[in-house]
């Protein structure tokens, strides 16, 4: 599989583009991690309330259990403390629910922004790279014999701009039909370069 162009200038641009994709992705990941930490700071009050209420609930429950041992009136004394313990549990659950909601929001924002940020460049660059790899890999399969140069010369006449063909020959089609190897080699070279491949030494 041909990943990069054999033409130095184009290969450099491809490497820089790939490197920028990695750097761009890393930058967005760092940014969303920072955002996640900032949003999670909003969960601190909820967690603090949950911890305090849980501790208070345990204290009320312990006090109620201690008073339950008082003869005759133990149950009456325990009941208010049990009620306060239950109320504290409800407060703790509300605080935890608030913290959980903030955590979910932080994760959603981080993932959404990471996907959008990375995709803003990847959606432009990745299709270009995939298209090149497919074309260049396919073109390499036809570089095993001299006869294959005819195919690239023919493709050049069909696909390349006329002003580039005119630089090679006033009648490139006629030269191709006559089997003019010099013209065929130049036409093939033109097409190969457009695909990111350098002509073989025997062709140049």
Could you name the key traits of this structure?
204 residues; mainly alpha; 2 domains; 7 helices; 0% strand; rod-shaped
Describe it for me?
This protein is mainly alpha-helical and 204 residues long. It has two domains: 8-140; 148-194, no CATH class. Helix content is 80%, strand content 0%. The protein contains seven helices and no strands. Helix 1 (8-40) packs antiparallel against helix 3 (74-140) and helix 4 (148-159) packs across helix 7 (181-194). The radius of gyration is 36 Å and the shape is rod-shaped. The protein starts with 7 loop residues before the first helix and ends in a 10-residue tail after the last helix. The model has no long low-confidence stretch (mean pLDDT 84).
How would the blueprint of this fold be written?
Elements (H helix, E strand, L loop, with lengths): L7 H33 L3 H24 L6 H67 L7 H12 L2 H7 L3 H7 L2 H14 L10
Helix pairs in contact: 1-3, 2-3, 4-7
Summarize the structure.
The chain is mainly alpha-helical. The chain has helices spanning 8-40, 44-67, 74-140, 148-159, 162-168, 172-178, 181-194.
């Amino acid at each position: 599989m041909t990943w990069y162009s054999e033409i130095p200038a184009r290969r450099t641009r491809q490497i820089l583009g790939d490197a920028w994709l990695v750097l761009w992705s890393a930058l967005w990941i760092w940014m969303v991690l920072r955002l996640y930490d900032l949003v999670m700071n909003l969960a601190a009050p909820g967690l603090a309330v949950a911890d305090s209420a849980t501790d208070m609930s345990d204290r009320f429950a312990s006090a109620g259990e201690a008073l339950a041992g008082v003869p005759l009136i133990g149950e009456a004394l325990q009941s208010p403390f049990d009620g306060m313990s239950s109320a504290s549990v409800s407060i703790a659950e509300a605080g935890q629910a608030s913290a959980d909601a903030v955590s979910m929001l932080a994760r959603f924002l981080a993932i959404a922004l990471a996907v959008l940020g990375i995709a803003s460049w990847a959606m432009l660059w990745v299709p270009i790279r995939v298209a090149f790899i497919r074309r260049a890999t396919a073109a390499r399969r036809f570089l095993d014999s001299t006869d294959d140069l005819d195919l690239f010369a023919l493709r050049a006449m069909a696909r390349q701009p006329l002003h580039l063909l005119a630089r090679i020959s006033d009648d490139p089609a006629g030269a191709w039909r006559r089997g003019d190897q010099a013209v065929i080699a130049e036409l093939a070279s033109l097409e190969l370069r457009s695909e990111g491949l350098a002509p073989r030494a025997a062709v140049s």
